[in-house]
Amino acid sequence: MDIKKYLNDKKEAVDSFLHKYYKEQRRPTLLQEAMLYCLFAGGKRIRPVLAIASYGACGGKSDEIIPYASALEMIHTYSLIHDDLPAMDNDDLRRGKPTSHKVYGEAVAILAGDALLTDAFSLLSDTTFCHTIKETDLMKALHEISIASGSLGMVAGQAQDILSENSIPDKKILQFIHIHKTRALICASVKLGCILAGSKPDKLEAISSYGSGIGLAFQVVDDILNIEGDAKEMGKAAGSDAKINKMTYPSLYGVEKSRQISKNLISDAINSIASFSSEADSLREIALYLLNRRN
Ligand code: GRG
């Protein structure tokens, strides 16, 4: 399959939904501008695409997944806006562009993040998009996304990351940070697709293993790219982690071992969906794409 075309087609479907969603109702102008500035700043849309691919791999046939998949991008975008704030990573650039608080000021950036997060849950609980998707499945998926985003998921990872600044490097702490900060939402994204397709528990278990593998590999690859990546392709200079002495896979295991860890995680992820038909080829190809990505 042509994975680049697949990723692009699904990204366009998500972009088109988000455009329409935010065009229909007006919000205070600056708030709306700040939300859209970050939402359309050139993200890969990997979480929604994973949800769509998982839905297809589990037998989902319609486009009904698109609004719910798009909500994942809203959560992801909120996390990036807040992560860049002076109180957190204090970054001036994201995807090669000035960060939200640099353009709109801290207060508006915080509110844009808050609004995107809250709107995501409004969307995830909106049953008007359900035709073949069961409302009980939507509720189940909503619960998964809440857990993955909240104080047992992404926020826990971010908190541990911040609390561990300048502390002695520790493999267990690093694992905790990566699992919560990055893996949780990626894993929940594939679970969302699987649940909304009405899958049985055995399928959900296989998809969860897949999501866990690619979710952790995603962050290990990110850590490696921070050392070896091309500034133009990444939209930021390489080496920022080392500059602030950040705990990363390469800093604790070395680049070569980290590369091997990411390869093993991806190969285990692909094996965990071995029993799925060719409808899961998109998931298999995405796993390989994530391993070899350049940004
Ligand atoms: C709860 C405030 C708060 C933050 C959560 C997700 C997060 C923690 C912080 C974002 C910064 C970061 C480096 C997170 C690790 C996950 C990661 C590699 C994010 C970048 O995701 P991509 O590559 O981004 O999907 P694009 O630009 O493609 O959207």
Question: If you had to describe this structure to a student in words, what would you say it looks like?
Answer:
- This protein is mainly α.
- The protein has one domain: Farnesyl Diphosphate Synthase.
- Helix content is 72%, strand content 1%.
- It contains 15 helices and two strands.
- It has helices at residues 3-24, 29-39, 46-57, 65-84, 100-104, 106-124, 135-149, 154-163, 171-196, 201-228, 231-234, 240-243, 249-253, 255-272, 281-292; strands spanning 93-94, 97-98.
- Helix 4 runs antiparallel to helix 6.
- The radius of gyration is 18 Å and the shape is globular.
- It binds geranylgeranyl diphosphate.
- Geranylgeranyl diphosphate binds at residues 43-44, 46, 76, 79-80, 82-83, 95, 154-155, 158, 181-182, 219, 222.
- Ligand names: geranylgeranyl diphosphate
Topology, number of strands? 2
Distance from N terminus to C terminus (CA atoms, Å) equals 21 Å
Our estimate of the beta-strand percent is under 5%
The CATH first-level class comes to Mainly Alpha
Tally the helices.
Answer: 15
CATH architecture: Orthogonal Bundle
Question: Quick one: overall form?
Answer: globular
Give start-end ranges of low-pLDDT stretches.
Answer: none
Order of H and E elements: HHHHEEHHHHHHHHHHH
CATH superfamily: Farnesyl Diphosphate Synthase
Strand arrangement, major sheet: 1-2
Mean pLDDT: 95
Helix content: over 70%
Category by helix and strand content: mainly alpha
The fold-level CATH name is: Farnesyl Diphosphate Synthase
Number of domains: 1
Tell me about the biggest sheet?
2 strands, antiparallel
The radius of gyration computed from the alpha-carbon positions, rounded to a whole number of angstroms, is: 18 Å
